[in-house]
Specification:
Layout: H1 2-18, H2 23-33, H3 45-55, H4 60-63, H5 65-86, H6 95-107, H7 110-117, H8 121-143, H9 153-168, H10 177-189, H11 197-219, H12 223-233, H13 240-253, H14 256-268, H15 272-296, H16 307-313, H17 317-323, H18 326-351, H19 365-378, E1 384-386, H20 392-398, E2 404-406, H21 413-418, E3 427-432, E4 448-462, E5 465-479
Parallel strand pairs: 1-2, 1-3
Antiparallel strand pairs: 3-5, 4-5
Helix pairs in contact: 2-3, 2-20, 5-6, 5-7, 5-8, 6-17, 8-9, 8-10, 8-16, 9-11, 10-15, 13-15, 14-17, 15-16, 19-20
């Protein structure tokens, strides 16, 4: 297992040095640049943790330290939890081999390597939920017994409060961990534990930790909660075929072998004592997984949203590894090899710089943003602009401190950072060849500029290959809609 983790770490170091920032990476890096108590679309922990990287210069490599450390913590917690809780009483079994199999399944999932490279909230939630699972199991054991096991119960309640608070600082859907936590303790020890001081202590710690989010939203008319509610509703009609497509994507990005091993592992758990940790993990993972599937029916779910619920169930696969016969292990090793090759192909795709490469959009933004800022300053323009918010994050990060105003704004974080255009404003519009848009010119009474004239084209290259072009247009005289 050490050699696999070492090779993976070296590969990630190579990627971190040669792959540009993704849309989400740059967006959360801007959180650190515009440090605040919270933000429009997410709680603040991702930005807070990137602030040290910004203080050290804000290089792409520095921004990859936190996700890499989070992935290392996840791997260790998977190993620890598997041996401590899921194989703890099976002294006659080959525990190290089974625990290694769990880590291999995690390591051979393509999505894991994306999350270990690019910091998003789900990257942080993977180790947080595994820590919460550990302390939930400790509490379940302590509350159902008496004697020496009661000594550390207050420490466990505090740890649960910290885990829930950190989860709340990471992502809004992490609130679904609360009903899962309550459910598993209710089933294991009944309802009486609810009236004790322990739950109040944990709730108090969690509320203190998430208080910056609540305070910021109170000052901003609760816009984050309104946005999340609207996002959950979706814009399209719910369709079952979208759910099937989302499930197929889950099988690919998280590895089909891990799902098969989970089913086999559940069937192989030898007794109720070992099945209970599996039930706890399932109870904590199920709420967010069901919600994500429901949202996928409206096209409102992204593949990585289930990663932290998926990782909760991985320790159960240890029993599938332990009880697999020689022939089955042979095919499992081939399956892991195929998934590992998919991860290698993903890494190669990120490194390559060809226009036909679907991952080429992470390249060339730094040079384009720096050149755009130079052209804007040479022409006396104070703002850059793009048509859609999804194009603003990398431009704003690499061109900082120059503002990037979104022309077609529908209320987003960039409005809070840079505001909106006022009548008569001018800007340099950047149009990207990978995702081009019509010029933001006012037509038929709609908001837009009076005219936009192209002044330069920047050719983005990576390792000698042209990956994209960026057209710079000077746009004059912004006109608001009536």
């Amino acid at each position: 297992m050490r050699w696999a983790l070492t090779l993976s770490a070296l590969a990630h170091l190579l990627l971190a040095m040669h792959v540009g920032l993704s849309v989400d990476e740059a967006h959360y890096a801007l959180y650190a640049y515009h440090l605040d108590w919270s933000y429009f679309d997410h709680p603040p922990l991702v930005g807070w943790l990137q602030w040290p990287a910004l203080a050290m210069g804000g290089s792409d490599l520095a921004l990859r330290v936190v996700p890499f450390a989070s992935a290392c913590a996840t791997a260790w917690l998977l190993w620890f939890l598997t041996r401590q809780w899921f194989l703890g009483s099976a002294q006659d079994l080959d525990e190290p081999s089974a625990a290694r199999g769990v880590v291999y399944l995690w390591l051979c999932a393509p999505m894991v390597h994306l999350l270990a490279l690019a910091l998003v909230p789900d990257t942080l939630l993977m180790p947080i939920v595994l820590a919460l699972l550990h302390f939930t199991l400790r509490l379940s054991k302590s509350l159902s017994t008496s004697g020496p096991s009661q000594k550390g119960i207050w420490r466990d309640w505090c740890a649960v409060g910290v885990c829930l608070g950190l989860a709340g600082l990471t992502k809004y859907t992490a609130v679904l961990l609360v009903p899962g936590f309550v459910l598993v303790l209710f089933v294991s020890v009944g309802w009486r534990w609810l009236i004790g001081p322990g739950p109040l202590l944990a709730a108090g710690i969690a509320l203190v930790l998430i208080s910056p989010v609540l305070w910021w939203n109170h000052q901003h008319d609760w816009i984050s909660f309104a946005y999340q509610w609207g996002h959950a509703g979706g814009r399209d009609e719910w369709q079952f075929k979208r759910v099937l497509g989302f499930v197929a994507i889950q099988l690919l990005v998280l590895g089909p072998l891990s799902w098969w091993a989970w089913v086999q592992g559940w069937r192989r758990v030898p007794d109720a004592m070992q099945r209970w940790p599996a039930w706890v993990a399932l109870g904590m993972a199920l709420p967010v997984f069901v919600l994500t599937l429901a949202l996928s029916g409206r096209g409102s779910a992204l593949p990585h949203w289930t990663s932290w619920s998926w990782v909760l169930g991985l320790p159960v696969t240890a029993w599938a590894w332990r009880h697999a016969g020689p022939e089955q292990r042979y095919w499992w090793h081939w399956g892991l090899g195929a998934q590992a090759l998919a991860c290698v192909a993903l890494g190669v795709g990120l490194l390559m710089g060809r226009p036909a490469n679907p991952f080429a959009d992470v390249q060339a933004w730094q040079g384009a943003a720096l050149r755009a800022a130079q052209v804007a300053q040479a022409n006396g323009l104070r703002n850059l602009t793009v048509v859609n918010w999804s194009l603003a994050s990398r431009l704003a990060w690499y061109a900082r401190p120059m503002p990037v105003v979104v022309a077609q704004s529908h209320q987003d974080q960039f409005d809070l950072w840079f505001g909106q255009f006022k009548p008569g404003d001018d800007a340099l519009w950047v149009n990207w060849s990978v995702k081009p848009y019509p010029a933001p010119v006012s037509q038929m009474g709609q908001a837009g500029f009076a005219q936009c004239d192209r002044v330069e084209q920047h050719v983005g290259q990576h390792w000698g290959q042209v990956v994209a072009t960026f057209d710079f247009h000077i746009c004059r005289d912004w006109r608001s809609a009536p």
